[in-house]
Design a protein that fits this description.
The protein is mostly beta strands and 419 residues long. Helix content is 1%, strand content 47%. It contains one helix and 36 strands. The protein has one helix spanning 265-268; strands at 15-20, 23-28, 31-36, 42-47, 56-63, 66-73, 82-89, 95-101, 106-110, 114-118, 122-127, 133-138, 146-149, 152-157, 170-175, 181-184, 195-200, 203-208, 211-216, 222-227, 229-236, 239-245, 248-252, 259-263, 276-278, 281-285, 292-297, 302-309, 314-316, 332-338, 341-344, 348-349, 367-368, 402-403, 407-409, 412-418. The strands form ten sheets. Strands 1-2-3-4 form a four-stranded antiparallel sheet, with no helix packed on it. The longest helix has 4 residues, at 265-268. It starts with 14 loop residues before the first strand and ends with a strand.
């Protein structure tokens, strides 16, 4: 790890973590390690084989009945980066399948029977027993932006693809269980303005510099817009979409855009910023070695949950679904923490200041720490993206033109907070 987000960031590669199906899984390098999400006991560990030198895991997901790991690699003879999705048994880590995937695609649905993978030019469902294709839906000559909403997958149709996904002339709505597909086009205008940025409760969001616009995911009808807003996440109970408007967190009805809850920036962002909203509570974590987890109830506009401080530094597992995560409809939030930091290395010259900024945070609840006597990696999962603030661990006397010394983690661990 090196100084940066909330004090330290991974220095030698990244690790990715996910929780689901009773497992907390970590992917680092080419090794996947699974722990019991209830007790923290080591269940199994498997190293992926058959990849060229330099290959590395870039995502891990835990599903009922299986675990999937996305691996990025460059062919032995050279060429562009590629990605493969590897399917492993949740019981013992045995590899049962390997399928091509888009660089920012991979597994988007899975069960004991099948795995659905977003590829560069198609979405494909594979039979877990035979590896045969159950169904395939082409998405165009280039990789496209996508979002899931329960059992539905929305894929944008844009000439520029994922890299330049605005505007989108249509959406492909695909049933992840059956493969049935409907092409949805905007009722007003020739395209959906902006980039596909979210989907929830049958509503799809497109974001642009002007703000957020919501459309009916079945008809293409424009539902509402929020000027200057940025999507922040969803809450399954109550069913709301959360936006950032200025410094405020705003919860809106997905169908109407009507504001249902608001929290001022000073209330929820003063110490760390909001990581996620679950069950009507904005979850945060104060910075520093004695930082405590808290839940700010938007209905009553006050902190209603609190938990003791967690090991510092700490980070949060990706909620986007691209790199991994806990199920957003579940009650677990997972963070990566460092129980013991290694001594700092000498300072290094730098032409730019180190990045700094906090991860934002989970709420109170019972914490379990999946660890083992031989941790799978000294890296931690990447922190969630939030507004930058000063690094509390940075030395105020560090000379200009130098970078804070690198600092490793001797005892990394995952902590699962039961909300």
């Amino acid at each position: 790890m090196t100084p940066g987000l909330a004090g330290t960031v991974p220095a030698d590669g990244l690790a990715y973590a996910a929780v689901g199906g009773g497992l907390a899984t970590v992917g680092a390098g080419l090794t996947v390690t699974a722990y019991s999400s209830r007790t923290g006991a080591l269940e199994w560990q498997d190293t992926l084989t058959g990849f060229p030198a330099g290959a590395a895991i870039v995502s891990v997901r835990a599903w009922p009945g299986e675990v999937t790991a996305g691996v990025s690699y460059r062919p032995a003879g050279g060429g562009a980066l590629r990605r493969a999705e590897v399917v492993l048994s949740d019981a013992d880590g045995a590899q049962s399948g390997r399928y091509p995937a888009a660089t920012f695609g991979g597994a988007v649905a899975a069960s004991q029977k099948y795995t659905v993978v977003v590829g560069a030019t198609a979405v494909t469902s594979y039979d877990n027993t035979t590896g045969h294709v159950r169904w395939r839906r082409p998405t165009g000559p280039v990789a496209q932006a996508w979002r899931t909403d329960g059992n539905r997958l929305y894929v944008a149709e844009s000439p520029g693809g994922f890299v330049d996904s605005a505007p989108a002339s249509a959406l492909h709505r695909i049933d992840l269980a059956t493969g049935s597909e409907v092409v949805v086009r905007p009722i007003e205008g020739l395209s959906f303005p902006g980039t596909l940025s979210g989907a929830f409760d049958g509503v799809v969001l497109f974001s642009s510099e002007a703000g957020v616009t919501a459309y009916n995911g079945s008809t293409g009808a424009r539902l509402w817009s929020a000027h200057g807003a940025v999507p922040e996440g969803i809450d399954h109970s109550p069913r709301r979409i959360y936006l950032t408007e200025g410094s405020n967190l705003v919860g809106v009805d997905p169908q109407t855009g009507k504001v249902k809850a608001t929290a001022s920036g000073s209330a929820v962002n003063g110490a760390a910023g909001v990581y996620v909203v679950r069950n009507g509570a904005a979850l945060g974590l104060d910075q520093g070695a004695s930082g405590g987890a808290w839940g700010y109830a938007l209905a009553v506009q006050r902190v209603t949950r609190a938990a003791p401080g967690l090991p510092w530094p700490h980070y949060f597992v990706d909620l986007s679904g691209v790199g991994g995560s806990a199920d957003p409809a579940g009650n677990l939030v997972v963070i990566a923490a460092c129980r013991q930091l290694a001594p700092r290395l000498p300072a290094q010259p730098s032409t730019s200041a180190p990045a700094s900024g906090p991860s934002s945070a989970p709420s109170s609840g019972t914490a379990t720490s999946p660890t083992s006597s031989s941790p799978p990696s000294t890296s931690t999962p990447p922190a969630s993206s939030t507004t930058a603030t000063p690094n509390p661990d940075a030395s105020p006397s560090a000379a200009a033109g130098t970078r804070e010394p690198a600092q490793g983690c001797m005892r990394p661990e995952l902590i699962a907070l039961n909300l």
